[in-house]
């Protein structure tokens, strides 16, 4: 077991973890952050995307011990009193159906807008290609990210 | 139209809710991460199950020793198939399509033989998922390998190894109408084609997950399922556990697309393990496990013959399918290809239709419903061969379609397949699609590129489709030997505070029922949208239902909600009559208020009636203090949405790369309850249909190993792989339900695959290429071009040869296919135009 200290959505945790424990399992099963789902086991789908020290990562591809000393933001910590502009935009543009990819998609989109506050449609599509959605055909996801960009959101 | 005349007089706020682009109620929990997915559930004392799965496509199990696993830390139990003998039953097939169909026993955990890679042979139950996974290695299984059966075109040969003792043929189902021999006899033009429907993996984003608790003989099973109600019945039938002791809950479910329309081995085993151990258990699959063991979709070889006159008028269509069942028949496996039987004729008039489907066993994962289920295959077949026929006859492909389709004034129209299409307007949808697409301009550009030998050629693909959905009419389903009815149930509960609970038997997994049903109720009862709550997906809360698949939720379940509202109004009217001191026949209901005809100054709202009913102080004699109502709707007919999809592709003839330049989908789904949701369904459907055309294929190697077990190998499209979609609508109300609605869940998938492939071939026809097998990868297109170039001008290259050159495992040339494909009339002339009378 290895002791790690992490801050998740603004709260500090100290835990003993197996070195092999995936960050996503730590978040879901130890911290109770089930808002971050698991869609694959090969880092292809992006459903488990969170921010590690402000940068998006696929939490199925990070070990919990690698997050030691880091600050993690999940979809559950994104809203600040009211919904984050991306959460609002996904709702307003009907950019989700089953919603399983949505947490990861929103976290990836937030990182995309941090790097490129005013992306073109093609840049949005390229920027989100690591996050798969099976329901929407991406049409409304692209619109939602564009809409959120229009509100001037640049960081989570 | 019936819909309008029925709906107008009593609707409370007609026009204010139906058709409104309401944002979804479901979203609040989904965008914030507050959702309850099955895998989120943690119960006190819960254990985790992990499975040992067969590494062989076909083998005899000679020994299973689980004792080693019991030594592993945190392991509570380990079981092999024989541990469940006598209680695990056989996974059900609810659609025995012919009286002599072969339905092999399908134990949830294999006991003596495995027939596909991934079949469960043992399991570990441990304190956590890591401990369970660790212990799997300590289970010893000895196998005696048997020869795999991997190709349905040779599986029926005498010399083929057998998947089951009874042989590799499950059934042969035939259907037809009209004199097919007469239609083909002396026909001026006959074309024969062999098309391949590759095997697909549905790939809902949420992997399957099951949690089961057993307390005092009462079971609660949470599952990522589309069908909690059907599952409950089937679990009772399979295990013998009394139905009243099983409660099934489908919490939020992360997509299904047919893949969660199943009774899974792991669901049955969860019940049995929870019963054995007296503790709750959870199993959540990994994606790789899911790709192996969630049922697959499609997988057909289609031989299609079409007979026409020189002016393009269709005379007859003959369809012969080989359908891969995989190793076993699951819930509706054999019925899926037959849903196409009535759709090959599509929107076209013809004199005769014949259809034959042979269901064949292989040592692969069973196939079953995947978005469209039988109808995408049929639409692909007919729309592909219509393009080939147009080319053969030198008729513009849209013109050929128009010469044959049912004219809007001919509805209702009974097709050659015997279905009566209630309404439609193919002319209007096509005109709108052409306009949005810029059809004529693109044809001009196409000519220019051809003339200038532009290395990037432009292709225009057409798909004019209809489909039968809203599964549904119980009598018709019964006549097709389907094991259940097709009705749907709804309840309306009027709460004392004036709020409304709607209970629906449809079980949403992303469709937006909570929003759409609220709109229907708000419109009908005149209560605010926000005051309505929709309950679903729990057999204890919603005890009756047939669940969600086949684009049925709105056309059956939504109409049931509408019917329950009407009953609420009728009951409330009796009480309003007493309160307003006027006879019931003089009471009118409008915009949520009851009033006496001619005097709407004095009114009672339906919320006031609800409160008065709750108090029940002053109800008339003999009036039950209850205005809650149930309705069960069983339509007389399927639903027939239709539309015209146009796709423009740029095909780089030097690299084989395909770029979709524009895609226009004009769909007519009748009356629209929520245009946002309808467009969303179309977008997602398009993505899946386009993915079949360009990207996706489940590939088994020579030994029967699935090689596409990850999303790196099985290519789900990302945002960067798909184009912008232009959607449009025409609105021809259904006349078979009071809302005038038609299904939309599968339309995009059904229509889009042939539109894309037709577009690619339209670009490649000048090169003598008339087929590329799906998925139309750059390599396959490049090889087809290369073959065409090497063969010289004037020859026709089929995708079959492209595939052969491609050398992909599991593909053989379609011409070989045809030879192996049944006994009658092997294609002559390489599948090219036969006949040819002047």
N- to C-terminal separation of chain B? 46 Å
Q: What is the number of helical segments of chain A per DSSP (H or I, 4+ residues)?
A: 5
The CATH superfamily of one domain in chain B appears as: Aldehyde oxidase/xanthine dehydrogenase, molybdopterin binding domain
In total, the number of strands of chain B is 29
- CATH secondary-structure class of the largest domain in chain A: Alpha Beta
Task: Determine the most extensive contact between two protein chains.
Answer: A-B, 57 and 59 residues
Give me the CATH superfamily of the largest domain in chain A. Beta-grasp domain
Question: Beta-strand percentage of chain A?
Answer: 15-25%
Your description of this structure?
The complex is a heterodimer of chains A (about 160) and B (about 850). Chain A is an alpha+beta fold and about 160 residues long. Chain A has two domains: about 1-75, Beta-grasp domain (Ubiquitin-like (UB roll)), CATH 3.10.20.30; about 85-150, DNA polymerase, domain 1 (Orthogonal Bundle), CATH 1.10.150.120. Helices cover about 30% and strands about 15% of the residues of chain A. Chain A has helices spanning about 25-30, 85-90, 100-115, 120-125, 140-150; strands at about 1-10, 10-15, 50, 55-60, 70-75. The longest helix of chain A has 14 residues, at about 100-115. Among the domains of chain B are: about 1-35 and about 485-635, Aldehyde oxidase/xanthine dehydrogenase, molybdopterin binding domain (Aldehyde Oxidoreductase, domain 4), CATH 3.30.365.10; about 405-465 and about 640-765, Aldehyde oxidase/xanthine dehydrogenase, molybdopterin binding domain (Aldehyde Oxidoreductase, domain 4, 2-Layer Sandwich), CATH 3.30.365; about 770-820, no CATH class. Chain B is about 30% helix and about 25% strand. In chain B, the strands form seven sheets. A seven-stranded mixed beta sheet of chain B has the order 3-5-1-12-9-10-11, sandwiched between helices. A six-stranded mixed beta sheet of chain B has the order 7-15-14-13-8-29. In chain B, strands 18-26-27-28 form a four-stranded mixed beta sheet, sandwiched between helices. In chain B, strand 22 (about 585-590) and strand 23 form a beta hairpin. In chain B, helix 10 (about 375-395) packs parallel to helix 19 (about 745-765) and helix 16 (about 555-580) crosses helix 17. The longest helix of chain B is centred in the last third of the chain and has 28 residues, at about 555-580. The two termini of chain B are about 45 Å apart. At the A-B interface, helix 1, helix 2, helix 3, helix 4 and helix 5 of A face helix 2 and helix 18 of B.
